[in-house]
Amino acid sequence: MALWIQAQQLQGDALHQMQSLYGQHFPIEVRHYLAQWLEAQPWDAIDLENQQDEFKAKRLLEGLIKELQRKAEHQMGEDGFLLKIKLGHYATQLKSSYDPCPLELVRCVKHILYTEQRLVQEASNASSPGSGPVDGTPQRYQQINQTFEELRVMTQDTENDLRKLQHSQEYFIIQYQESLRIQAQLSSLASLPPAERVQREAGLQSRKSTLEAWLTREANTLQKYRQELAEKHQRTLALLRKQQTVIVDDELIQWKRRQQLAGNGGPSEGGLDILQAWCEKLADMIWQNRQQIRRVEHLTQQLPIPGPTEELLTDLNATVTDIISALVTSTFIIEKQPPQVLKTQTKFSATVRLLVGGKLNVHMNPPQVKATIISEQQAKALLKNENTRNDSSGEILNNNCVMEYHQTTGTLSAHFRTMSLKRIKRSDRRGAESVTEEKFTVLFESQFSVGGNELVFHVKTLSLPVVVIVHGSQDNNATATVLWDNAFSETGRVPFVVPEKVLWPQLCEALNMKYKSEVQSDRGLSEDNLVFLAQKAFSSSSNNPEDYCNMTITWSQFNRESLPGRNFTFWQWFDGVIELMKKHLKSHWNDGAILGFLNKQQAQDMLMSKPNGTFLLRFSDSEIGGITIAWVAENPNKAGERMVWNLMPFTTKDFSIRSLADRISDLNHLLFLYPNQPKEEVFSRYCTPPNSKAVGDGYVKPEIKQVVKVEFSSPNPEPSPGNSFMEHSASPTVNQHHNFTIYPSM
To answer: Is 620 exposed, middle or buried (0-12, 13-18, 19+ CB in 10 A)?
Structure first.
């Protein structure tokens, strides 16, 4: 539906606001009769700050005039005659008004269309809150820009009113001085002869009475002007606060949430430059309104007139100071978080940024930022404004940095490049909590002033939770704590509270995000993969995904309690898979060569229906970071019987000696990758080329090859002579220990 049709259906205050958009500068009749044409023009494509776009604006003005003239020519009948004259008059009027500066026409029309759209949207949301449009990013951005345009117009309007008030007050003071002069003349008449005194006194009294009456009326007018201006400032500040809520409490919080999920492998948070542009616009408009209010205060002090305006101005001053303070403290953010698994005695970096620093000229006296590590309890006390006595929970080296202004990007930031955690002070742990479940945070704080020391700010911001480790062996469990916190923490929480249990689908989303990021693959975890993980986590045998949709998994099940019959947790097993994949098997996963998430029985059921020599790759159930080859072949001990064999799992250590592709190539009884791909098609391009040339001082370089000490009825089961071989035991039922034998070169 066309915007103008919807705008005509507005009611009450919204209709009044819409009608107030029009006047001599742009008659409502022009909007009505050219509605379709106006809404079809590319007003948004013109940058009002770019004088080079004035030519485009000129063409739009000419088009508007032509459309008005064309519309006027087509009017018929008695009513049409009057309308024809009126539209022709509007065409001449608009051309005269905007021909010297066509960009002003664009500004005017953009403001009208933006405001109408906002009013229609608000009315639509109010009438049907459950059926509003999807909150898409472009629409949100458009609404924010519309509000900024409205704020600009309101601020310009109060500026014009303030100048009018100032001129009126200056004239009032001149007339008041004249009144005092007349009074002084009357006082000096006593020295004159009676006849002359009477004659002059009558004239002076008449002038005095007239002037005093005017001063009384004008004082009331000035008071009215002040009252109206204060009320306009109230409305402007209310809209500024609302806009600030959208940008700081919605958009910036969403950015921080995206930053947190990026720690789990989510997409890059992005969008910070847009947020800075919005925050700078807010700061600019807040500061303009603050200066206007201070000028009104000065005028009031210069000419006190009893009334409610003084109290209003006090409230306005407090409100605008509160708004600017909230903006400054909220926009001191961490652009680049410190690592969330933080190892002592290891260098790390972080970057903090003040989004409104450039606009408020904070860089003219560059502030210093200090970094301190504090505990979860200290973070709680800090947010409650309790006295923490400048306590810290450790010592960070190189923890002071001066904020720098970058002219090209317009950013004010501090880059901590060589921080190092020298020591950490741990608190008493609760129950079964381990050191890798204890959370800390890096506190960044600074102090600076704006507006020539008018306002002094002490700003603080906390990093995402960090887990401190002293040895690489703790990294696995620390990562689990970080993943759970990043995935399931709620906005505005008490530091650093997380739910003890979550729905299984929620954890699936977090695991899939982490897996895709670490393996650097677009191929995530399939529904079958997630069912396998659910079976492992819950010790369940159900293959139905819906059975797990409403199940919850606790933190203890995730990474505190060992899996049944194992000496490792669910997360430790999953993290082992991630480490194996990202170090050695990324390419094979991306090719789809690794099914991975299968148990032994599933592999057997899948392979028994396939020809001998068919194999698949699955992750080991019994060993962290292990992958095994399962294949179907004849039972060498019983003719005519087929069975599935499972090779003892390979780990990262094995693949650092010989790659998976080379090992599969070595085993001649492996013919087809499940379901039916010849193994050469899948793995040959990853195999190491044979090396038969002499190297060094005439020596031949030996080769290590994979063999299985079981005879299978498949072609060429034995390796060809002339190479070194590594024997690798296998069993149809259990995984045995490795048996390695290196044969010398022949």
So the answer is: buried
> Residue 323 is encoded by which pair of tokens?
């708004």
Beta strands in 463-600 (DSSP E): 467-469, 501-503, 552-554
Q: Facing residues of 634 across strands?
A: 642
In this prediction, residue 430 carries a pLDDT of: 64
Contact 294, 317 (CB under 8 A): yes
**pTM (two decimals):** 0.73
Residue whose tokens read 């910036």: 252
Longest alpha-carbon distance in the chain: 152
Contact of 724 with 742, CB cutoff 8 Å: yes
The residues, ordered by sequence, that sit 6+ positions from 618 with a Cβ below 8 Å of its Cβ are 595, 596, 597, 598, 599, 600, 603, 627, 628, 630
Can you say whether residue 195 is alpha, beta or left, with left for phi > 0 and alpha for psi between -120 and 50 degrees?
alpha
Q: Say whether 444 sits in a helix, a strand or coil.
A: strand
As a whole number of angstroms, the distance between CA 730 and CA 220 comes to 102
- Residue 746, helix vs strand vs coil: coil
Looking at residue 439, what is its pLDDT?
93
State both tokens at 56: 């485009």
Q: What is the pLDDT of residue 134?
A: 35
Is 556 in contact with 492 (CB distance < 8 Å)?
no
Cα 117 to chain centroid, rounded: 26
**506/498 Cα distance (integer angstroms):** 13
Which residues neighbour 635 within 8 Å (Cβ) at sequence distance 6 or greater? 641, 642, 643, 732
Peptide bond into 496 cis (omega under 30): yes
Fill in the DSSP letter of residue 404: E
Task: Write the CB contacts of 553 (distance below 8 Å, at least 6 apart in sequence).
Answer: 501, 502, 503, 504, 507, 537, 538
Q: Is residue 675 reached through a cis peptide bond, with omega within 30 degrees of 0 on the bond before it?
A: yes
Cβ-proximal residues to 257 (8 Å cutoff; 6+ apart), any chain: 491
Residue indicated by tokens 């195999």: 687
For the stretch 205-252, pLDDT in tens is 788 888 888 888 998 999 999 999 999 999 999 999 999 999 999 889
Q: What is the pLDDT of residue 161?
A: 92
Q: What is the pLDDT of residue 734?
A: 36
Residue whose token pair is 């004010």: 412
Q: Counting every residue, how long is the chain?
A: 746
In the prediction, which pLDDT does 499 show?
A: 93
Is 30 exposed, middle or buried (CB count within 10 Å of its CB: 0-12, 13-18, 19+)?
Answer: buried
Q: Where would I find the H helices in 384-495?
A: 475-488
Q: In the chain, which stretches have pLDDT less than 70?
A: 1, 48-50, 77-79, 125-138, 192, 195-197, 199, 271, 386-390, 408, 429-432, 691-698, 709-746
Look at residue 315 and give its three-state secondary structure.
helix
pLDDT per residue over 154-211, tens digit each? 999 999 999 999 999 999 899 889 888 888 887 777 776 776 667 677 777 788 888 8
Strands 440-450 and 455-462: antiparallel
Query: Tell me, what's the pLDDT at 723?
Result: 34
Q: How far is CA 627 from the centre of its chain?
A: 38
Cβ-in-10-Å burial (0-12, 13-18, 19+) of 741 comes to exposed
Alpha-carbon distance of 378 to 460, in angstroms, equals: 14
- Cα-Cα-Cα-Cα torsion 60, 62, 67, 69, nearest 10 degrees, comes to 160
